[in-house]
Write a structure and sequence with these properties.
The protein is an alpha/beta fold. It has a single domain, classed as NAD(P)-binding Rossmann-like Domain (Rossmann fold, 3-Layer(aba) Sandwich). Helix content is about 40%, strand content about 15%. It is built from eleven helices and 13 strands. The strands form four sheets. The protein has a seven-stranded parallel β-sheet, with helices on both faces. The protein has a two-stranded parallel ribbon with strand order 7-10. The chain has a two-stranded parallel sheet with strand order 8-13. Helix 5 packs parallel to helix 6. It starts with a strand and ends with a helix. The structure holds nicotinamide-adenine-dinucleotide.
Amino acid sequence: MNILVTGGCGFIGRWVVKQLAEDHHKIWILDNLSNGRIENIKELQDNYQNITFVGGDIKNHILLQNLFTIDFDICYHLAASINVQDSINNPKMTFDNDIVGTFNVLNQCKIKRTKFVYMSTCMVYSMALSVNGIKESHPTCPSSPYAGAKLAGEQIALSYYHAYGLPVTVLRPFNTYGPYQKKNSEGGVIPIFIKRKLENKPLLIYGNGTQTRDFLYVTDCSDFVVKTGYSNKTNGKIINAGSGTDISIKNLAKRIVDTKDQIKYIPHIHPQSEIQKLLSDNSFAKKVLNWEPHISLKEGIQLTQNWIKENMV
Ligand SMILES: NC(=O)c1ccc[n+]([C@@H]2O[C@H](COP(=O)([O-])OP(=O)(O)OC[C@H]3O[C@@H](n4cnc5c(N)ncnc54)[C@H](O)[C@@H]3O)[C@@H](O)[C@H]2O)c1
């Protein structure tokens, strides 16, 4: 198939492209490199023939029109501003990229009848209340402009399914981690903690560390994303993917370092946008896609640490 991956030079996008390349598709990546790196796909371009990088922005109509002269079978839309604090500081940038940009890509998919896989996030949910985890029917809550933008993108995408019969699927992966994720404030908590440990610096926890997250290893996430594009059963659906287990940030830190002295608690930068408990219920993904995660948190931390050690600058 001909497949477009927006945000394909980013952390998750890079793994999605890898799996698509292993499946022998022709792939185009659209990325403005605002948070991704061309180096993330270098190894893939060296090893696979059919990966074309297009440098550009999803806000650029002309570029999108030209790009969509290619007949894409699937568009995996991952390009987005992803940082919660940035969205609080500068909501316009997040809304422009995550809502307007999504609308632009979706419109081209409508013209060419391209299946649209929209990468939303677990951050759209309000906190989990039970030990059973969050199903797709769980209440949402835009606790930050980032979550609000992602929810808006979901609704716009689903409206194209209902109004135009466009094949659209909305994905809500839980916190994803692994190699190629940034280790600075733009990245995720696991690589940030590992990097600080390797630099002999204390791990910094925002607030009291009782907030929990459900961590999904990146190859499990990319496997989920890719499969949703291949299946017609996902059209018009919202689908979760997580590990099905949550861990408090305090306990995560204790898994990464040996002693409590290596952990420091600092005031939260955005307590008002914190979601206290995030835990997925993956039963729908299992039913509709036969998808389930394979990498445990212990293995995933080890794999991530190995990669960070090899790539410390
Ligand atoms: N990382 C997670 O834990 C997680 C969890 C659930 C959902 N998501 C979603 O998955 C997607 C990918 O996240 P990620 O962690 O890989 O982030 P990332 O920042 O590494 O990837 C996003 C990519 O999009 C590109 N981009 C941003 N704005 C663009 C624009 N206007 N035009 C073209 N390209 C643009 C960036 O350069 C980057 O390469 C995002 O949509 C995010 O909301 C991430």
